[in-house]
Amino acid sequence: MERRRTPVRLAGLTAAALLLAGGLGACGRNTLVGRPAIATINGHDISQADVQAAVDDQLKVLTKSGPGAEKQRAAAEAAQTQGVPTKAQFAVQLQAKLDEYRAGSYRMNMTGTDTELTAIIQTEIYRDALRHVHGKITKTERDNAHTQVLQSIKALGLKETDIPKRYLTGVEETQSIVLAIQAAAPKGTVPPATPAAEYEAQLKALYDQQAEGYAQVCISLISTADEASAKAARARIDGGESFASVASEVSLDATSAANGGKADCISRSQLVGVFPDATASKAGDVLGPAQGNGAWVIVKLDSVKVPTYAELRSTLADANPNTDEQAKSQALGAFVDKEFRAALKRAKVSIDSRYGTWSAKTGAVVAPGGRAATSTTVAGP
């Protein structure tokens, strides 16, 4: 029996959303004897066992992906993305989702089931949209889908073996469908792209302007309680004493003092926050004293490493995306959404009332008692 799962906004959201939003389900296209259908979509049966398997797999993914998902949330927060929850809010949301799936697992009540049933039905709606545009899944779509899914898993700090194989197979299958719909978009759907060489030149110009700000600076540190003590320590260094010996003797930071003042490596931009003249400093320079984090500090730059263009390119590209690529993504996403909406109107869905009702307006299952499942969509290349 074939089983499929639907990713939640695979390209439009972060990898965390893909694996945490609960938008993955399984579909038995020919339900086996003894496994009664609880819903049908365009003539295809969905069994209770299919939905239970999807709930169980989602629980496994939720349990595995917590730490990596928090990393994704923190990155989005640092980028000042709108609507990003705080760390505390995110932890509460993740725990609530885990509790929800644990409550429903193996008892097949409505907890988590409406979300997975919605995903299964939506998978078949996307499949109908693919047929309508006369699209076909080729090796290119499957290879690209596989690459995207693996990137999402890696971005969460997970390994492929951390995720149930059945789950991965379904995610890749559905993403292949979406990519095939995009590939079938008529000419003129996507605006002309900026030549790659031109965009690369723009990124290299940004690198020339900003590379120093991304430099990693390894420092030695002297921390004192007041300005007078810091100035006295600086005078000894200027007088010829080694930074290490002064740090070992007077620094209040016990950890670094025990190692001759050797401290962590930080970005140059962090250093500039305390020492404005650090913008042009080089290895061997001594800065301070200056007040920072409740103490008076002096630092020595032990080494300065400026990242190469190759090392920094992805960071620059993320911060300065190719606007034409964004336009392409938006155009293809709009095309997929249009075809999905059309297929949604054509869809013939029936659901056992014990498991909810189908809302053709939202494209989601409404659980008994009125709680609507989170509607899933797939957008972007």
Beta percentage is 5-15%
- Total strands: the figure is 9
Largest sheet: 4 strands, antiparallel
Oligomer status:
single chain
Q: Total helix count?
A: 13
N-to-C series of helices and strands:
HEEHHHHHHEHHHEHEEHHEEE
Overall residue-averaged pLDDT value: 80
Helix/strand class: alpha+beta
End-to-end Cα distance, whole Å, is 29 Å
User: In percent, how helical is the residue content?
Assistant: 40-55%
> Which shape, going by the Cα principal axes?
elongated
Mind telling me the C-alpha Rg? Answer: 28 Å
- Uncertain residue ranges: 1-34, 105-110, 374-381
**Count of structural domains:** 2
Order of strands, main sheet, comes to: 4-3-6-5
List the SSEs and their pairings.
Layout lengths: L14 H6 L16 E5 L2 E4 H31 L8 H18 L8 H20 L6 H17 L9 H19 L12 H15 L5 E9 L2 H12 L4 H8 L3 H4 L4 E6 H7 L11 E7 L2 E11 L3 H11 L3 H24 L2 E3 L5 E3 L4 E3 L15
Antiparallel strand pairs: 1-2, 1-7, 3-4, 3-6, 5-6, 8-9
Features:
single chain; 381 residues; alpha+beta; Chitinase A, domain 3; 2 domains; four-stranded antiparallel β-sheet; three-stranded antiparallel β-sheet; 13 helices; 13% strand; elongated; disordered C terminus
What does this structure look like?
The chain folds into two domains: 15-192 and 322-366, no CATH class; 216-305, Chitinase A, domain 3, CATH 3.10.50. It has helices spanning 15-20, 48-78, 87-104, 113-132, 139-155, 165-183, 196-210, 227-238, 243-250, 254-257, 268-274, 309-319, 323-346, and strands at residues 37-41, 44-47, 216-224, 262-267, 286-292, 295-305, 349-351, 357-359, 364-366. The protein is α+β, with helices and mostly antiparallel strands. A hairpin with a 2-residue loop joins strand 1 and strand 2. Residues 1-34, 105-110 and 374-381 have low confidence and may be disordered. The strands form three sheets. The protein has a four-stranded antiparallel β-sheet with strand order 4-3-6-5. It has a three-stranded antiparallel β-sheet with strand order 2-1-7. The protein has a two-stranded antiparallel ribbon with strand order 8-9. The chain is built from 13 helices and nine strands. Helix 4 runs parallel beside helix 6 and helix 5 (139-155) packs across helix 6 (165-183).
